[in-house]
Amino acid sequence: MGRASDSRFLIDGSDINTESSTKTTVDDEDGRYQRAIRYPYDWPSDCYLFHSGRSHLVHDRIAAREGRVAVLAYGSNRSPEQLMRKFGKLHANQAIFVERCELSGWDVIHSAHVTRYGAIPAALVANPDVTIRVAVTWLDNKQLYIMDESESTGCNYGRQTLTRSAKPGDGDANEYEVQAYVTSHGPLRVDQQLVSHAAIDAKGRPDKGLHTIDVLKRAHTLFASTQSFKQFVLGLCDDARYRKEITHLLKQGL
Questions:
Q1: How many C-beta neighbours within 10 Å does residue 226 have?
Q2: Any idea what DSSP says for residue 3?
Q3: Per the omega criterion (within 30 degrees of 0), is the bond before 168 cis?
C-alpha cells in the first residue's frame, strides 16, 4: 500500500537560501522520524517535579500530591520530553509531580492504532501475573483537561479508575487510587498474541516483548514494503488518511 501524494506550497524562491532551506527540511524530517520511533522516550526512572521545561528534585511529596488527581503514566506521559510538548514550561507553582510506582495485575502492551506523530503507542491490559514499574502524574483540574485533550479522550483513549491501587516505588507503604487512559482501539496482536512493550519495566512477563520500532518495522514489512522504512514512518506522521488506513490494518494484527 502506498501513501497518498505529498502536497506542496508554491512560493517565490528568489530570496531563499536553498542550502539552508533544504537543511531545515531534512532536520525537521529527522525530528519527526525520531519522535515516532523513540516512543515512549527517556525518563529519569525516579520521582521528579516537572516545571520550567525539565525535571527537578522533589522535596515534599505530600504537598506535591495535595489537591491533585493521580493519573497513571505508563507510556510517554512519564517523560519530561513529552510533558514539555503537552504543557510547555510550567511555572514552579504549577509543577507536575511524576511519581514512580508499581501496579500489579496489569501489563503494558501496544495499542492497535497510530498516533498523529507516527508512533504505535502503549496500552494497558489486565494480567494477574505481571507487575509493571511505571509512574503516576499528579494533575490539577486544568492539567487533567489538557491531558485529556492530548490523549483524544473519547476517541483514542477513555479515562477510567482502575480496580487496583498503585504503590509508590520507593518503599512507601501508602497506596492510592489511580485513573488511567485505556485504549479505544483494542490491543495490537503480533502473530495472534498480545506482546508486552519492551520499553516498560515489569516483572512476571512470559517474554521480553517488542519496542515501538519493532512493531513499526513489522507494519512496514506487511503494509508498505515498496518504500523505505523512513518514508513509511514519515507518511504516518504527515498523512492523516494514511494513519487511518494503517490503524485499520493494525486492528487485524501483525
A1: 9
A2: P
A3: no
The end-to-end CA distance of the chain, in Å, is 15
Q: Which amino acid is at 9?
A: F
What's this model's pTM, rounded to 2 decimal places? Answer: 0.86
Q: Where are the alpha helices (DSSP H) in 105-211?
A: 141-150
Cα–chain center distance at 133? 16
Taking the C-alpha atoms of residue 30 and residue 26, their distance in angstroms, rounded to an integer, is 6
Return the pLDDT at 171.
Answer: 62
**Cα 111–chain centre separation:** 10
Task: Please name each of the domains of the chain with its CATH number.
Answer: 35-250 (3.10.490.10)
The owner of cell 525535571 is 55
Q: In this predicted model, what pLDDT tens digit does every residue of 89-138 receive, in sequence order? A: 999 999 999 999 999 999 999 999 999 999 999 999 999 999 999 999 99
In the chain, where does DSSP find H-type helix? Answer: 18-38, 61-65, 80-87, 141-150, 212-223, 229-238, 240-250
Nearby residues of 106 by Cβ (< 8 Å), 6 or more positions away: 124, 125, 126, 127, 130, 132, 162, 164
Strands 96-110 and 167-168: antiparallel
Coil, helix or strand for 164?
A: coil
Name the CA radius of gyration of the chain, rounded.
Answer: 20
Q: What's the pLDDT tens digit per position in 196-245?
A: 999 999 999 988 899 999 999 999 999 999 999 999 999 999 999 999 99
- The single-letter DSSP state of residue 135 is E
What would the DSSP string read from start to end of 104-130?
Answer: EEEEEEEBSS--TTS---EEEEEEEEE
40 contacts 76 by C-beta, under 8 angstroms: yes
